[in-house]
Amino acid sequence: MNREKLAKKVGQLLVIGFNGTKVPQEIRDLIHTYHIGAIILFGRNIGTPKEVLDLTTDLQREAKKAGYTHPLLICVDQENGVVRRLGEGATIFPGAMALGATGNPNHAYNVGVATGIELKALGINWNLAPVLDVNNNPDNPVIGVRSFGESAESVSKFGRASMQGMQEAGIATTLKHFPGHGDTNVDSHLDLPTIPHGLTRLEEIELKPFRECIAEGADTIMTAHVYFPSIETEPGVPATISRKVITGLLREKLKFNGVVTTDCMEMNAILHGVGTEKGAVAALKAGVDYVMISHTLERQVGAIEEILKAIENGELTEEEIDQALQRIKVLKEKYLSWQDISLEDEPIVPETVGSKEHEKIAYEAYKDSVTIVKNDGMLPLPQNNSRILVVHPDNGTTMQVEDKRYANLSLGAAIKEYQPEADIYPFSSALDEKEVSAIVEKAKGYDTVIVGTLTITPSSNQIALVEKLIKEKGSVIVIAMRSPYDFGYLPDVPVYINTYEFTYPALKVAAGAIFGKEEVKGNLPVTVKKRLVEGK
To answer: Which residue pairs, CB below 8 angstroms and at least 24 apart, start in 533-536?
Structure first.
């Protein structure tokens, strides 16, 4: 086979990303030159629903012009909750841990269907969800509330319901991050985590949700850039490029015959190890089908060239490439058809996007998810109690995977819907002792202080702030706007509520619960123990 034809085979094994809400010329060139297999969209690509549909339609038109047999797979991380890509005009749905807190997998299914309908309406046909990581490490910096909880059984049930809901809507799904990223205290965007557990423990916890969802018809599985020494004997080799993990464990032992995609190969766990381009070859050798390179054009082209070299020198065989392409073909035939994509007319966004029906599905789930962990008789507050101070961080992202466009916290606005006279005090993420003192001083003029916390750490001044407010005022309500583990640092707070995410609908339901206007039913899907505080 000549190099040009081979390059178009190899290109089909890549998932690539780019900047902007319009298709850049270099991406058009890659589509024609290499027949790139899939596109990943991030917040940087997302505008209004109409702009998103225009973008995805333009991508498909280019693929059609380039002679593609099947349309492009176009994917996003629409996990919902704290990790979501759709913004203005789309429905805000609860994320995994909020759903886990409902105790009702039907919510996960219904949200899955509605999410899938909105994605498909905008020309997105592949969702990089659900997360099947079992979050049994309170210090996990990258999974946390992206997980359905700490129980492998619960994660299995909710993950399966979410997957099946999206599939029902005609969306390809992704189980991630195999073989499990839940019990780490390192973010693989930044470094290479290690999970040291033996295979027996992995079978009981980490692998259980994957095994059960594979049995129910999983579409694709995303690998974790995590080192598992009990599976991979060569030190420091992440699961993504380990043949023992991908072929030995996932393909042969767990009998998964679907598509395997890497997580982004520009994350530091790969970039600073084997390197993105050589990592692409290593991943394919391990048994992966799709190599994801989300950001840099030079690395995308470089990876294709590196793969071509590996085929030419016998490191990779064309047969291995063909096997991957066959698995991708089966996936595309299940979910994609040129007959289902309108390329001629001006695309029109269906009314299902951001519909009242979908808002109701989200609202019912949020009501069942918000969790009143502790109430020492303070709730409900009377609405005529006009002296309320709301203090919260001024922005919300702590993980690289989160979208900074949604970082503006709106707890104050949610409280004001019930108590318009409430005063708001946003504090900086670098909250220092001086600012703590200023807030405590200001609080003296109020009857009740409502504090929004955001993933407290042992050294966080959020702890000192709440403790001093309790000492000064007594009547303090804490709303943990992401991590349920915050309560471990604040056992003496009179009222503690979890929303699991800082989305406005979640905060509005919590505000309604404070004033007795919403009956919330959530239960903690994780165990929260008293935590040690630095300096104490």
So the answer is: 533/458, 533/463, 533/489, 534/458, 534/459
Nearest 10 degrees: Cα torsion 39, 29, 273, 261: 30
User: Which residues are CB-neighbours of 298 under 8 A, at least 6 positions away?
Assistant: none
Q: How confident is the model at residue 468 (pLDDT cuts 50, 70, 90)?
A: very high
* 230: amino acid identity, one letter: S
Look up tokens 């703590």; give the residue: 436
Closest CA to 290 of 39, 480, 108: 39
Going 284 to 286 to 290 to 294, the CA torsion angle's sign is negative
| 452: its two tokens | 């929004």
Average pLDDT over residues 25-40: 97
pLDDT tens digits, one per residue of 388-403? 999 998 865 554 555 5
Q: Distance (Å, rounded) from C-alpha 301 to C-alpha 18?
A: 13
**Number of domains forming the structure of the chain:** 2
Overall average pLDDT of the 421-450 stretch: 93
Mean pLDDT of the chain: 92
Same domain, 378 and 489: yes
pLDDT at 455: 87
> Which residue among 275, 306, 334 closes a domain?
334
The identity of residue 356, as a single letter, is K
The residue ranges of DSSP E strands in 137-251, in sequence order, are: 174-178, 220-223
Q: Is 251 exposed, middle or buried (0-12, 13-18, 19+ CB in 10 A)?
A: middle
Is 509 inside a domain boundary? yes
Q: Which residues are catalytic?
A: 189, 263
Residue 507: strand, helix, or coil: helix
Together in a domain, 316 and 436: no
Three-class HEC string of 255-299: CCCCEEEEEECCCHHHHCCCCHHHHHHHHHHHCCCEEEECCCHHH
Q: How many other C-beta atoms are found inside a 10 Å radius of the C-beta of residue 216?
A: 13
Q: For 132-183, what is each residue's pLDDT tens digit?
A: 999 988 887 678 899 999 999 999 999 999 999 999 999 999 999 999 876 7
Q: Are 196 and 230 in contact (CB under 8 A)?
A: yes
Q: Is residue 38 part of a domain?
A: no
Nearest to 53 by CA among 135, 124, 111: 124
Rounded Cα distance between 386 and 371, Å, is 25
Query: Which domain, by its residues, includes 93?
Result: 80-334
CB within 8 Å of 345: residues ≥ 6 apart: none
CA separation for the pair 421, 515 (Å, rounded): 14
Q: Phi and psi (nearest 5°) for 469?
A: -65, -40
pLDDT bucket at 344, cuts 50 / 70 / 90: confident
Residue 519 lies in a domain: no
Residue 268 lies in a domain: yes
